[in-house]
Amino acid sequence: MRGLVRAVLLCVALGGATLIGLAWAMLDRMPSIVDTPAGVSAQAADRTARRIADLDPRKLRDGERRAIVLGTDEVKALVDTVAKRLPGTRAQATLGDGQLLLRSATALPGSFWLNVETSVVIADGLPLPETMQIGALSLPPQLARAVLEKATSVLLRRVGYVGTPDLIAQALHTVEITPHSVRIDYALSRRVAAEGLRTLLPPGEAERLAAYHEALRGTLLALRAQRRGATGGDVSETDRLPAAVQALFALAQSRGGDALAERRSALLALALHTSGRSAASLLPEAESWPKLPPLALTLRGRADLGQHFAASALIAAHAGAHWANAVGLAKEVRDARGGSGFSFTDLMADRAGTRLGERIAAGNDEVAAMLAGKITGEDLLPAIDGLAEFMPEAEFVRRYGGVGSPAYEAVLADIDARIAALELYR
Q1: Per residue in 299-335, pLDDT tens?
Q2: For residue 15, how many C-alpha atoms fall within 13 Å in the half-sphere facing its CB?
Q3: Which of 118, 188, 214, 344 lies at a 20 to 30 A Cα distance from 128?
């Protein structure tokens, strides 16, 4: 009997030692990724935002085949953005001929790092994990695939996708990887696209957005009545966006629950209206919601500034300032090349909205309370005097030397100083 007990204890000890050894092999004292990933380029952010907009299920024909081609900078930017949603994590992606190498490093307590390197290859036109190494431990292919499958579900939920990976897999036809790009061929039905967009929304978004939609509708009706003199009042152009902001954030204060989720939903309702998009582009059931009056929400007397401000605030509250700033800059560069021209005024509205979105994402209750109180256009956006706009590309380059030049950076510094002087952004 003593021999049996000793044998059992020895097995337990060996098993424990093995587990400790495996855990130790998976940990490192240094991160495998030392360099900080580059920020999102304006071009990458702009292309990505446009592709997301193309997923409006109302624009799709059932079974329609489409393709997305992501360049190296876009792949790296998306991987970097996903990594920022994971505490203490940095990540990099390297494209090869038929191969994608993903590397991540996550800080752990005790000055340890969990370094993971995964190689994904293309098999029969679809991506397949080939190898995975965690620290010094190399996993066999079958185990690597099982681990990656579980990790993918967790990761998708951390970035806001609450559906199953199967929904994504159903849409994929083929994937091609080259050293310079990733091409994804897919086909979406209206149903799958609608379900996919719904799963990208946080839990409870449909109920929250319906409440803010109704609050915004009431505010717009009141503003329209005042403009027509039905109440004997007079609302100036500069009052419209602040009035909507105040109503939405007052509702967010009163609803309780997850404060950040409520504030993000308030921004979503605001940004959808200022951009001219319907909530039905995200939620098919919103087709039955009462229509919003077509009243522009102006800021500093201009509808375009309200649009820039609200969109940047929403992006920053969800994806961070680097994405919001990049999207705003891309819009101005595109305008300079064939639209209304490059505008530092628009860029200031973008950067002010971005700063607001940052503070909301950080859980700043004081800012939320200010927005729910008496707020004016002057509180949201500094004076726009002296900022050049409507510049075609040639004029923009001649006067300021292009994006990144000393003259351009000097104007950005002036814009940021104006924004920082406002109480809301201190």
Answers
A1: 999 999 999 999 899 888 876 655 555 556 656 566 6
A2: 6
A3: 188
